[in-house]
Amino acid sequence: MLILLPPSEGKAVPRRGKRLDLDALSFPALTTSRAQVLHALVELAHGDPTEAAKVLGLGGTQADLVLLDRVLRTSPTARADTIYTGVLYDALGLVTLSPGARRRATSRVAIVSSLFGLVRPSDQIPSYRLSGDVSLPGVGPVAGVWRGTLDETVRETLGSGLVVDLRSTTYAAFWRPAPDLAPQVATVRVLHEVDGRRQVVSHFNKATKGRLVRALLEDGRTPRRPAALAAVLGDLGWTVEVGESTKLGTRLDVVVSEI
Fold first, then answer.
1. CB 3.0–4.6 Å: which of 62, 201, 222, 224 could bond 192 by disulfide?
2. NCBIfam families annotated for this entry (predicted)?
3. By the 8 A CB rule, do 30 and 117 touch?
């Protein structure tokens, strides 16, 4: 099983830790692309700060985030599961999982990253600012970099298992499954239902996805097809509706009325 999570825009900044070592990260086939994106981001941050902030989509009160990117090569690192923060990661609580669930997280969870492509929760990374919709000078859209790189890595990692895709729209553009992988892909959408009306609400969506992944990791079962995943989630107390199978996989709608 490969559980794909989006990153968080907000990130913790470690006070101490080793410097970034690209060769030590999981998914070593991505090292060349990581080095390319890292170089472009650091070069941008060393240039005109106003222009860098504009390229990175930063507001006037966020200009200090350019400094994070300027010192990426020498900044302290920490485990990715402590760097990424926010509603989804608070609800998931990777660092508070039981020992068995945490071992499963290490081998099953992958976080999509604009800078690193994919990282495991245990990978040592620095805090950075690079959103998935940014186009870097000399590189172009980061989504394009990873779209041309991630498929081979996902296939090698996945084998005959199931992709549980919980990425947001921006990060879904980094990798789209080819038709031959569709039977192995479950794309999870969270719908908030009130008085018979359903809609996607950001806070409910993120919190529910975090809780859902936590429950899967604690449960430990390894469903290999979308319908089997829906059955496991049903056993765990979720209301799940299985959509039609398409060339991109099968959508599972998780319907909630409260967090």
1. 201
2. PRK02101.2-3
3. yes
Cβ neighbours of residue 197 closer than 8 Å, sequence gap 6 or more = none
How many Å apart are CA 119 and CA 113, to the nearest integer?
A: 7
In the chain, the amino acid numbered 215 is A
Tokens of 208: 């529910």
Separation of first and last alpha carbons in the chain: 25
Q: Are 46 and 119 in contact (CB under 8 A)?
A: no
* Contact between 209 and 8 (Cβ < 8 Å): no
Residue 11 gets which letter from DSSP? B
Q: Find, among 81, 160, 89, the residue nearest to 120 by Cα.
A: 81
- CA dist 230 and 116 (Å) reads 30
Amino acid at 164: V
Collapsed DSSP state (helix, strand, coil) of residue 8? coil
Tell me how far apart the alpha carbons of residues 26 and 192 are, in angstroms, rounded to a whole number: 35
Per-residue pLDDT tens digits for 79-103:
999 999 999 999 999 999 999 999 9
Strands 109-113 and 2-5: parallel
* pTM reported for the whole predicted model: 0.95
- 60: DSSP letter: G
Helix (H) or strand (E) holding 111: strand 109-113
Cβ atoms of residues 68 and 75 within 8 Å? yes
- pLDDT value of residue 198: 79
